[in-house]
Amino acid sequence: MGFGNGIATEHGFDHALQRKSPVAGYCLAAASVLLVAGCVSDQSRVEDAERMLVAAGFIERPANTPARESQLATLPPYNIQSQQIRVGGTYTVGFVYADPKYCHCLFVGNDRAYERHERMAVEKKIADEQMQTAEMREDASFDWGAWGPYDNWWGPGAVVAVRARR
Q1: Whole-prediction pTM value?
Q2: What is the DSSP code string of the chain?
Q3: Structural domain of residue 66, as residue ranges?
Q4: Does some domain include residue 102?
């Protein structure tokens, strides 16, 4: 017999710590999703966002001169901002996204590209939520009974009090 937190246990397992509620599986699944989401690097998130910008019609412009580098440094990174930009010889409102760390570039788009990007972002969010829901349903429908008996896994069985006859 081993001891875990001062409680005698069989085979070194602390059965008091192994008791789980029916909600434990859902909590574990949600924690796993958050852990995996947290493991995604900042760089891969930025790259995914930039691929979506290009797919929406934004144009990537490298900061390949000192003047462009200094202008890029003045913009808030990783956010789409409306800016007055010059197209041809006239000024108009456009949208820019600065990446000073990974690609050292600026993404520039017009109102149509911005609207496409916003629509694509909403569609991606819906698809991600549908995928998460499907994965949770799949986990809930898994037949855990095929993995063996759970004697004492969920804690001791039901306690039945029997009154002694006199």
Answers
A1: 0.57
A2: -EEETTEEEBTTB-HHHH---TTHHHHHHHHHHHHHHHHS-HHHHHHHHHHHHHHHT-EEEE--SHHHHHHHHHSPBTSEEEEEEEETTEEEEEEEEEETTTT-EEEEE-HHHHHHHHHHHHHHHHHHHHHHHHHHHHHHT--GGGG---TTTSSS------PPP-
A3: 42-139
A4: yes
Q: Is residue 146 part of a domain?
A: no
Encode pLDDT of 30-74 as tens digits. Answer: 555 555 555 568 899 999 999 999 999 999 999 999 999 999 999
112-163, pLDDT tens digit by residue? 999 999 999 999 999 999 999 888 887 777 776 666 665 556 555 666 667 7
Specify the number of domains making up the chain. Answer: 1
Tell me if 117 sits within 8 A of 94, measured CB to CB. no
Nearest to 63 by CA among 55, 52, 75, 71: 71
Question: Is position 155 within any domain?
Answer: no
Radius of gyration of the chain (CA): 28
| Distance, CA of 21 to CA of 43 (rounded, Å) | 38
